[in-house]
Amino acid sequence: MQESSIIQYFTEKGIEQGKKQGIEQGKKQGIEQGIEQGKKQHAVEAILTVLEVRFETDVAEKLKPFLGAIDDLQRLDQLHRVAARAPDIDEFTQALLNLEN
């Protein structure tokens, strides 16, 4: 019986430690996801700001759902650059549509 309670003790300790590690891993993943989401949101807002300042139009706000659907930060960075250089909102919109395909 002594051996059984020792095994039970270490089993319980292992379960506790596993739970703690799982919680810590979950927290870490949650923080990483939050950081990525924040970067994405910032990138979308930066694009919209450039479009609004450069073209003084409300079309930029209408593009927000399309920009928000893009999860790739590199694609958003590319669109930010296009927004800064595009001669008009139509060219930016065309670039957005081409990137979605």
Overview of the structural elements:
- The protein is mostly helical and 101 residues long.
- It has one domain.
- The chain contains 4 helices and no strands.
- α1 runs antiparallel to α2, α1 packs parallel to α3 and α3 packs antiparallel against α4.
Summarize it.
By secondary structure, the chain is mostly helical. It has helices spanning 2-55, 59-68, 73-85, 89-100. Helix 1 packs antiparallel against helix 2 (59-68) and helix 1 runs parallel beside helix 3.
Structural class: mainly alpha
Distance between the termini: 67 Å
What do the pLDDT scores average to?
85
Unreliable residue stretches: none
Rg: 24 Å
Strand content: under 5%
Number of helices: 4
Order of helices and strands: HHHH
Q: What's the number of extended β-strand segments?
A: 0
Provide the number of structural domains: 1
| Shape estimate | rod-shaped
The largest sheet, given as strand count, sense and whether it forms a barrel, is: none
Helix content: over 70%
Task: Provide key terms for this protein.
single chain, 101 residues, 4 helices, rod-shaped
Which SSEs are present, and which pair or pack?
Elements: H1 2-55, H2 59-68, H3 73-85, H4 89-100
